[in-house]
């Protein structure tokens, strides 16, 4: 396991913002996403997914509701336009407006001492939001024991202060945190549980219906979950969307690379969604049976027991 201390600030240029504004904004998203937005409080944030009718994830978000009639959804830029188009199809007579607000907001990653230096609390639990002037500081899952947060603020607000973090190091920390962000290569590849979303606050099983809800619920309540996401490391480059193979069968893939980034030590870290049985199937490789060897490492959070 890597041990890297990193403190500072980095712009999150790979992310964008969908703005939902209006009296029905929260209730509309409540009926579309896997998480409860109707009861979302100003001091909370939500990890959530948008799914197809078959329960496959189209997008993942971090959502906040700073005021009652405004919800901001942070999403990977490469799938923002198609996700916004799909959500807009279902607005109909609901009283809200959905827009691409990426140009209106500045997004930064904060790590370690930079969280406190910019008015946040390093000990905040993942899924909490703090208001710092016009900015929102959203606590993320830590990486390598280092607290992390996301800074969301109007572009007119002062930028957060702190030493610069290499964007590549931040991308690596995202992987090491164990929380997957959906991007274009993996759209419609997973139900939420395949990315451990039920274990990290990305699914609410007590809320009402949403597209794919029956499939997601059935996956949780009927039998053992057969696919999970694991943190792995590799000595060579791996990429999102690559298939993963076990030594016992070089022809049939056992999983998919969800996210990958190179660490400060030159090694690659990746999140791999794969069959749980693959852990006992011998050495794992990305891209082909002879591709980069993958070493499975402990998850940084506990998985909820199957129900």
Protein described:
The chain is mainly β and 307 residues long. The chain folds into 2 domains: 10-164, Aminomethyltransferase beta-barrel domains (Alpha-Beta Plaits), CATH 3.30.70; 184-297, Elongation Factor Tu (Ef-tu), domain 3, CATH 2.40.30.160. The protein is built from 5 helices and 16 strands. Strands 11-14-13-12-15-16 form a 6-stranded antiparallel barrel. The protein has a 5-stranded antiparallel beta sheet with strand order 1-7-10-9-8. A 5-stranded antiparallel beta sheet has the order 3-4-5-2-6. The longest helix has 10 residues, at 167-176. The protein is globular and about 55 Å long. The chain starts with 7 loop residues before the first strand and ends in a 10-residue tail after the last strand. The model has no long low-confidence stretch (mean pLDDT 93).
Please give a handful of descriptors for the protein shown.
single chain; 307 residues; mainly beta; Alpha-Beta Plaits; Elongation Factor Tu (Ef-tu), domain 3; 2 domains; five-stranded antiparallel β-sheet; 16 strands
